[in-house]
Write a structure and sequence with these properties.
single chain; about 300 residues; alpha/beta; Rossmann fold; 2 domains; six-stranded parallel beta sheet; four-stranded antiparallel beta sheet; 9 helices; about 20% strand; binds flavin mononucleotide
């Protein structure tokens, strides 16, 4: 603890410094906290990754200034100080928690990914699990701005639908990501979800998280050839790895450009169903149990 001040009326104001270099090299987090009756009534956090060298303040200075400002405000009137810092209710649609979460990354409704996503969800339900499909494109989401604020309270600075998405990921046993290849990578709204999961990475790094979750990739591309999936595979591998999700397989289908082309791929329905069933049966953390190239004949 760097500083501690007892304020009249039983309030305790502290400034703490923590080394978070186990998460990122050199990361340090400062916490200014007001306690009353043993409970935290207000807290401010900041970390060194929020600041660039050209900024007029750094994390330590910002925390010390906040400490001094709060000490003055508390001494003047603790009731007004605490009242002004009630938590703001979060907005955003509620997303239920299910055993299997299918994230359907294509913005094209009724397209190839929608078909595969529905197959995956129905296979999960047939296996006796609860399942849902969510559509990043229909959610109210802002892109990650790289502020690193999430390493303060394991929460994002934005109040939008991402909190529900993270709750659904946290609670799922199997996460299925269904994506088309867009300019070699995943579509923008899905990428937003992936990047905004940095807040979930922060939560896991700071407090831990569920173990034994698995992730399945279902992907389609307009061009033929497995090399078209290289970047998507890398993005998804890193996404799963960052969140401690063990990859449990993939189904890839190339040569799909029209909205329902995937229906013409022989055996695709069985491959998707089999991959979901195998992932659900796999032991915690087991990797790549259902890998299938899933490409049309000749590729
Ligand atoms: C903006 C955009 C970019 C695309 N980029 C690629 C690409 O780089 N490589 C490829 O093979 N297909 C590409 N495609 C084709 C899609 O992957 C293909 O149409 C896919 O079937 C779409 O899936 P959906 O029906 O689920 O929306 C692109 C399509 C769009 C609309």
């Amino acid at each position: 603890m760097l500083r501690r001040t007892d304020i009249e009326g039983g309030y305790l104001l502290t400034l703490e410094r923590e080394d978070l270099s186990r998460i990122y090299p050199g990361m340090v987090r400062y916490t200014v906290r007001v306690r009353f009756d043993g409970k935290t009534r207000a807290a401010f956090r900041t970390n060194t990754y929020e600041y660039t060298p050209g900024m007029p303040l750094d994390a330590g200075e910002s925390a010390r200034e906040t400490f001094e400002e709060w000490a003055r405000e508390l001494a003047a009137d603790p009731g007004v100080f605490i009242g002004a810092r009630q938590p703001v209710p979060r907005v955003g649609s509620a997303i239920p928690v299910t055993d299997v979460l299918v994230i359907q990354g294509s913005p094209r409704a009724g397209g190839n990914c929608s078909i595969m996503a529905d197959l995956a969800a129905s296979a999960a339900r047939e296996a006796g699990r609860t399942a849902q499909v969510i559509f990043p494109d229909d959610l109210y989401l802002r892109p990650c701005i790289g502020c690193y604020w999430c390493y303060n309270f394991a929460q994002c600075t934005f109040d939008d639908d991402m909190e529900g998405v993270i709750a659904a990921i946290r609670g799922a046993r199997l996460i299925v990501v269904c994506t088309p290849v867009y300019t070699d990578t995943v579509p923008a709204a899905l990428k937003m979800v992936i990047d905004r999961c940095q807040a979930y990475h922060a939560e896991r790094a700071l407090f831990g998280g569920p173990e034994g979750q698995t992730g399945l990739l279902l992907a389609v591309a307009g061009r033929t050839g497995e090399e078209n999936f290289g970047c998507v595979r890398t993005v998804m591998r890193d996404f799963f790895r960052n969140l401690g999700i063990g990859p449990c397989g993939e189904v890839l289908a190339g040569g799909m450009d029209r909205a329902r082309d995937v229906r013409t791929v022989p055996g695709i329905e069985n491959r998707v169903r089999a991959a979901v069933t195998a992932c659900l049966k796999s032991d915690a953390g087991e990797t790549a149990i259902a890998t299938s190239s899933g490409l049309p004949p000749g590729e």
